[in-house]
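[Q] Does anyone have a clean structure-token version of this?
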Amino acid sequence: MKKYVVMLLAMLFLSGCVTKTVLIDTENDTTERVAALEGRDFEDAASSMIEDMLEMGTLSKPNGQPYILIISRIENDTMQRIDVDELTKSIRIALMKSGKVRVTAFQEDNMVMQSAQLRKSKEFNQANVRQKNSLAAPELSLSGKINQREFRVSGDKRIEYRFSMSITDLSNGLTVWEGEKKIKKIADKNAVTW
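[A] Here you go.
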């Protein structure tokens, strides 16, 4: 009996320690900003660049067919450990939904190249195995960099983030689009940005 009373008290104690969790409306998020990069910053940068890419018209192929795009290196030159895929994923999805590009993932998905090994196996139906000369070569490459600079201004910390991206035509090496989005924040001088 004592054992059950102890368990009941433990359960009551633990239920009293539960923290309140609220779902954030990402469209109307008015919660306090942080000095470091956060999801809203990635969303702002991505939507700004997507709009610019599509407005310029350089992603419109003369024959109406979509370009084949590869996501190249996006360099993180900040003091933070961030996943740059958070930025590129939004851009990638929006561009694919626009119908202007198709994204090749042979560089990201190991199975694309490894699947060629199945041609040698008698265990697999060869009708389903990828044939030679069947991969779509990329025509355009998306690359970029995220920079961070910090300054002292009137005792506060000013943080500037710059998202810079380029799309390069792989057939001739020429840049067909460049864009950047700057995000500037003022924070307490002790604010942590890493």
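[Q] Thanks! Anything notable?
[A] The CA atoms of residues 68 and 94 lie 14 Å apart.
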